[in-house]
Amino acid sequence: MMSRIAFSMPRSWPLVLKYTNIRSYVLTAVFVMLAVLTPWVCHQFRLAGPTFLPMHIFVLLGGLLFGWRAGLAIGFLSPFISYALSGMPALPTLPQIVVELTTYGLVAGLLREKLHLRALWALLGAMVAGRLALTLAVLAIYLVTGSVSSPLGPEAGPFTAVGATIRQGWPGMVIQLALVPVVVWLVGRLAARTPIDG
Asked: pTM of this prediction?
């Protein structure tokens, strides 16, 4: 019973991208573009990125849908490209966001691809791992520079800063939990009707 709740049978989904053909690069580029474009659109409507976490959605989806390689690539590239094009995220927060998002994509992909966890459990595991990675990144930055980038200001301690960041982003976490498993399920249903080779 518990294994049916937590685990899915290994099928043709996720579509594991191994970067041996052009389609892998195209799908990765599309998800990077979506991860970069969505925060920019949110900012046009005064929807704060740190609150709604729009970039996280496509990084998590990339890992859950396409495996750990794609999740890692999307999570690593998206913040850098977003910063180069729009100046967001701000430079002081860029390193910790890169670590956090790369961890999301990598862990979501590993849990889904290697352990065959259902999307919800893989998503939860990735969300926890990403916050732990964020904490370690902020702590490392604090030890090197003596300050952190935080909603509370640079005088905040590393753990206080991470706590404030998590509290600020709770609406985005709720959106991820509500939206991401549904999208993965819908894509899986479509893939079951039209089998795709990995």
From this structure: 0.89
For 34, the domain range is 2-193
Task: Extract the tokens encoding 181.
Answer: 């498993």
Those residues whose C-beta lies under 8 Å from the C-beta of residue 105, and which sit 6 or more positions away, are 59, 60, 62, 63, 68, 70, 71, 72, 73, 74, 75, 76, 126
When divided into structural domains, the chain yields a total of 1
Pure H helices in 49-169: 49-52, 54-66, 68-86, 94-113, 119-145, 158-168
Residue 197 in this model has a pLDDT that exceeds 80: no
3-state secondary structure (DSSP) of residue 7: strand
Q: Across all residues in the chain, what is the average pLDDT?
A: 87
Token digits of residue 195: 């089998």
